[in-house]
Amino acid sequence: MSITDSLERIQRGAEEILLPEELKKKLARGRPLRIKAGFDPTAPDLHLGHTVLINKLRQFQELGHEVLFLIGDFTGMIGDPTGKSHTRPPLTPEQVRQNAQSYREQVFKILDPDRTQVVFNSQWVNELGSAGMIQLAARHTVARMLERDDFSKRYSDGKAIAIHEFLYPLIQGWDSVALKADVEVGGTDQKFNLLVGRRLQEQEGMEPQVVLTMPILEGLDGVQKMSKSLDNYIGITESPEEMFGKLMSVSDELMWRYFELLSFRSLAELEGLRQQVVDGRNPRDVKFELGEELVARFHSAAQAEGARRSFVERFQKGAMPDDMPEYVLDGQEGGIPIANALKAAGMVGSTSEGIRLIQQGAVRLDGEKLLDRAFSLPAGGEVVCQVGKRRFARLKVR
Amino acid sequence: MSITDSLERIQRGAEEILLPEELKKKLARGRPLRIKAGFDPTAPDLHLGHTVLINKLRQFQELGHEVLFLIGDFTGMIGDPTGKSHTRPPLTPEQVRQNAQSYREQVFKILDPDRTQVVFNSQWVNELGSAGMIQLAARHTVARMLERDDFSKRYSDGKAIAIHEFLYPLIQGWDSVALKADVEVGGTDQKFNLLVGRRLQEQEGMEPQVVLTMPILEGLDGVQKMSKSLDNYIGITESPEEMFGKLMSVSDELMWRYFELLSFRSLAELEGLRQQVVDGRNPRDVKFELGEELVARFHSAAQAEGARRSFVERFQKGAMPDDMPEYVLDGQEGGIPIANALKAAGMVGSTSEGIRLIQQGAVRLDGEKLLDRAFSLPAGGEVVCQVGKRRFARLKVR
Question: Which residues of A touch B129 (CB under 8 A)?
């Protein structure tokens, strides 16, 4: 593969590369590059948002490079030294070992174990000792550290920044020195820290690492970043059905974003899919392909197909069209009886036809089968009503 | 001695005590207190300015307390990690040992060796290790550190503060924890750092140290702080004659300041001396007593007396009056012959008397005996001229 092609694959989805010319130079040497990425040593429970970065690592591996999967256990074994966070108690070495094992199990669904070294920074950071920490701290100025967006904001907002927080970016940078990283991949929020690594390597007389930042993946809502706390995530250990169903729920626009950042299909293939949609293919069917690819990655191809079939079974058969007619009905005291509502909306020819269809189980309100023919739509309510397979209407009662 | 009397002696010359009630409480326990003071590990070449603090330590010893003479070798063995200072290369353990020995030789002229422990902070600071340094750094916020006067000024002036500089006050504070200091004595410029020690001790559940700051001694000029670089200092290893002579050169006002901060005479004795001057005693004679006391401290009583005698010999007999007449003479090409100048200034009756006096060795220019009767004062020059013991004039040639 030519360097230009390699570069194009590496650039896919990346937010920024600093500096592309340096990366070109490194690639041109034809030696496997050392690609560093750092991970929290706490118990991993990865979601698709995390895999954006891991996918990038995999792409490097496909190009023949070596991934240094760094577990930041040094800080993990300190915990939160301010004692303010209950969620960051110090980890024991045994916990770190277990968490590393759990990482392996999860990331090796994406990464090639033969081109992955799992490394722990406690090894070289503990070696620094008190004096080494002073020397490391001397490498950066307070003013420069306060330029980091979050520090600058907290400082100007009068919120406390403990001094050790200034040391963490330096430690992360020192990891790059210790690992002789050629490239460090991180989220856009990590850019400052990744640049510290460049600087420290330069100070050590090394060729500085190329910094590659990946965007933060939007969650299912398409707006906020994917995160557990916002409950807009897809965990990579979720069941095939959950994973597939959640992927189907994303908007068509977000689907293309997910294709770019989560799919392993080539950019050419993605272009082909886009063209198919332009030519009239149902985007939902393309979304199926995304869902199947991702479920297959974390489970199996058979389970992916099963998840698709079960989804079609459960949802598509009862899927509601986006553009259904809407009727505003005049309710009375006690609402409006359902058969009358169906008639008024023109969904049935008569109230008795409505009653018969209800008895046959052919009427659904908001996707739920309605069997009570005496049911009344309450005044002020709104409901999606389905009769048979194809007749839909949104009914509002005023 | 009552606690009130002890407190009064401790307060003598002190700039500030934080907090006096706590010190009272500590004194009231009747146990020897642990008095900490920190010193630079570089080669000591102490001047009287340094001894202000050491004198205070001695006063504590006289009250039965124990001095922890801390040599900050941890940082000394790092040197200047920014590599910017050529004057702060890292010290070897051997150099630290030698410097400590040199400290002992110098300070034991003031301190009681039986009540002095010389301690080195590398012992406990190295033990902290990388993780301990992080935990220590977590004890303070950036904002709080930037409140320190010099940091705040440098930060607002846009001057670089390296991050390790934030760690040094914490290390100094940790020394107080490790030493279980009851009191820390330091210069006024150290107040911030001494308070860090209080805070860390409190965080460790210890009774916080009392902070006692001593003023910075003015140099011989009476205005700027005594320092080598300003050349307004008296080194404690200077010869008896130099030391005595320099002390004689200070103003009467500064003399009282030196009495307060450098003399071991009691406050009552000092009050007596002041009264004598009010009653008409020549302040110069009081200054002699100061000079003799200090020379005796660093040399011997006999040498002190010798220095005084030699001073009187060399300077007092030939001392120049402050208010001598001044003559502006008209020079010619090649200046003005000295005998003519003496005549023109009315210092001799005739040029031949001038020549005779020069031959007798009775004429001095700027204190130097003039033996060359053919000497001419150059145009544009200015000289203090002395004829015999009492005739003085300042001669300017234009």
Answer: 126, 129-130
In chain A, what residues touch B141 (CB-CB under 8 Å)? 160-163
Q: What is the pLDDT of residues B274-286, one digit of tens each?
A: 999 999 998 889 9
Contact B294/B243 with Cβ under 8 angstroms?
A: yes
Q: Do B134 and A170 touch (CB under 8 A)?
A: no
CA distance B118 to chain A (A): 22
Chain A positions touching B131 (Cβ under 8 A) are 74, 77-78, 126
Helix (H, G, I), strand (E, B) or coil at B106: helix
Minimal CA separation from A161 to chain B, in Å: 5
B positions 128-157 inside 8 Å of A (CB): 128-143, 145-146, 151, 155
What's the rounded Cα separation, in Å, for the pair A31 and A291?
A: 36
Question: For the segment B149-191, what is each residue's pLDDT rounded down to a tens digit?
Answer: 889 999 999 998 999 999 999 999 999 999 999 999 999 989 9
Q: B200 to chain A: which residues are within 8 Å by CB?
A: none
Map chain A to HEC letters. Answer: CCHHHHHHHHHCCCCEEECHHHHHHHHHCCCCCEEEEEECCCCCCCEHHHHHHHHHHHHHHHCCCEEEEEECHHHHCCCCCCCCCCCCCCCCHHHHHHHHHHHHHHHCCCCCHHHEEEEECHHHHHHHHHHHHHHHHCCCEHHHHCCCHHHHHHHHCCCCCECHHHHHHHHHHHHHHHHCCCEEEEEHHHHHHHHHHHHHHHHCCCCCCEEEEECCCECCCCCCECCCCCCCCCECCCCHHHHHHHHHCCCHHHHHHHHHHHCCCCHHHHHHHHHHHHCCCCHHHHHHHHHHHHHHHHCCHHHHHHHHHHHHHHCHHHCCCCCCCEEEECCCCCCEEHHHHHHHCCCCCCHHHHHHHHHCCCEEECCEECCCCCCEECCCCEEEEEECCCEEEEEEEC
Of A130, A155, A162, the CB nearest to B129: A130
Report the gap between the CA of B140 and the closest CA in chain A (Å).
6
Q: Do A160 and B141 touch (CB under 8 A)?
A: yes
The distance of B151 to chain A (nearest Cα, Å) reads: 10
pTM for this model (two decimals): 0.76
Alpha-carbon separation of residue A371 from A203, A348, A357 (angstroms): 76, 16, 9
Asked if A142 and B142 come within 8 Å (Cβ–Cβ), the reply is yes
Nearest CB among B77, B129, B162 relative to A141 is that of B162
How many residue pairs from chains A and B have C-beta atoms closer than 8 A?
128
Local confidence band at A249 (pLDDT 50, 70, 90 cut-offs): confident
Stated as kind and residue range, the H or E segment containing B368 is: strand B368-369
What does the longest C-alpha to C-alpha distance in chain B come to? 87
Is it the case that residue B320 has pLDDT exceeding 80?
no
Q: Which residues of A touch B78 (CB under 8 A)?
A: 131, 134-135
